[in-house]
Amino acid sequence: MTVLVVSGTGTEIGKTVVTAAVAAAARGRRVAVLKPAQTGLAPGEPGDAAEVARLAGAHVTPVELARFPEPLAPATAARRAGLDPVRPYEVAEAAQKLATEHDLVLVEGAGGLLVRFDDEGATLADAARLLAAPVLVVAPAGLGTLNATALTAEALRTRGLECRGVVVGSLPDRPDLASRCNIEDLPVAAGAPLLGAVPAGAGALPGADFAARAAGWLAPELGGTWRVPSL
């Protein structure tokens, strides 16, 4: 696994924290985190790639291709800012270059899999196809996640892309009934294994604590020790 694309079923569901956990579990390896399009931040503000490096540790190289100030889909944010959008071939070229210098490259998308990069309709899925890279899907735990996860997995299959698995981006300390049932049902919806669950609030931990605990949130396939719990 040299390049892994991290996408999700929507926005604000824990993609950055899951990306950080995967990076932290790869301690001892050279890891790069590539954020193709960072939206909603002004120049100089730390973005998602920098947050991954803060949480995961000094072995992580954060890279951002483009930044657009408004918190919108990349294509819309680029158009409104009067800036060139990110193109899938640029993402693929950057990831391939990083892969020559690192053991693992994590490409973190913005929003969901099919959020537009440009006005021609290019998406993160197109970049994953150019890279022939598997996609790790981040999903919420609660009600509604099964449909969104199934749709994302279907979109991957339709494009001939591999779904490496699903990770719950924010699992509450006391999961409700829907969340408990979804732990069992998510792999069925995705047609791929459940590969971890990051506890709610993990992103607020100090970096050293986060890095020390991350392996316990991820399955062995992602370098961790997590097993599917009985909730």
TrEMBL record:
<feature type="active site">
    <location>
        <position position="35"/>
    </location>
</feature>
<feature type="binding site">
    <location>
        <begin position="169"/>
        <end position="170"/>
    </location>
    <ligand>
        <name>ATP</name>
    </ligand>
</feature>
<keyword id="KW-0093">Biotin biosynthesis</keyword>
<dbReference type="Pfam" id="PF13500">
    <property type="entry name" value="AAA_26"/>
</dbReference>
<feature type="binding site">
    <location>
        <begin position="108"/>
        <end position="111"/>
    </location>
    <ligand>
        <name>ATP</name>
    </ligand>
</feature>
<comment type="subunit">
    <text>Homodimer.</text>
</comment>
<feature type="binding site">
    <location>
        <position position="48"/>
    </location>
    <ligand>
        <name>ATP</name>
    </ligand>
</feature>
<dbReference type="InterPro" id="IPR027417">
    <property type="entry name" value="P-loop_NTPase"/>
</dbReference>
<feature type="binding site">
    <location>
        <begin position="12"/>
        <end position="17"/>
    </location>
    <ligand>
        <name>ATP</name>
    </ligand>
</feature>
<dbReference type="InterPro" id="IPR004472">
    <property type="entry name" value="DTB_synth_BioD"/>
</dbReference>
<comment type="function">
    <text>Catalyzes a mechanistically unusual reaction, the ATP-dependent insertion of CO2 between the N7 and N8 nitrogen atoms of 7,8-diaminopelargonic acid (DAPA, also called 7,8-diammoniononanoate) to form a ureido ring.</text>
</comment>
<keyword id="KW-0479">Metal-binding</keyword>
<keyword id="KW-0067">ATP-binding</keyword>
<keyword id="KW-0460">Magnesium</keyword>
<feature type="binding site">
    <location>
        <position position="16"/>
    </location>
    <ligand>
        <name>Mg(2+)</name>
    </ligand>
</feature>
<feature type="binding site">
    <location>
        <position position="39"/>
    </location>
    <ligand>
        <name>substrate</name>
    </ligand>
</feature>
<protein>
    <recommendedName>
        <fullName>ATP-dependent dethiobiotin synthetase BioD</fullName>
        <ecNumber>6.3.3.3</ecNumber>
    </recommendedName>
</protein>
<keyword id="KW-0547">Nucleotide-binding</keyword>
<dbReference type="GO" id="GO:0004141">
    <property type="term" value="F:dethiobiotin synthase activity"/>
</dbReference>
<keyword id="KW-0963">Cytoplasm</keyword>
<feature type="binding site">
    <location>
        <position position="48"/>
    </location>
    <ligand>
        <name>Mg(2+)</name>
    </ligand>
</feature>
<comment type="pathway">
    <text>Cofactor biosynthesis; biotin biosynthesis; biotin from 7,8-diaminononanoate: step 1/2.</text>
</comment>
<keyword id="KW-0436">Ligase</keyword>
<feature type="binding site">
    <location>
        <position position="108"/>
    </location>
    <ligand>
        <name>Mg(2+)</name>
    </ligand>
</feature>
<comment type="similarity">
    <text>Belongs to the dethiobiotin synthetase family.</text>
</comment>
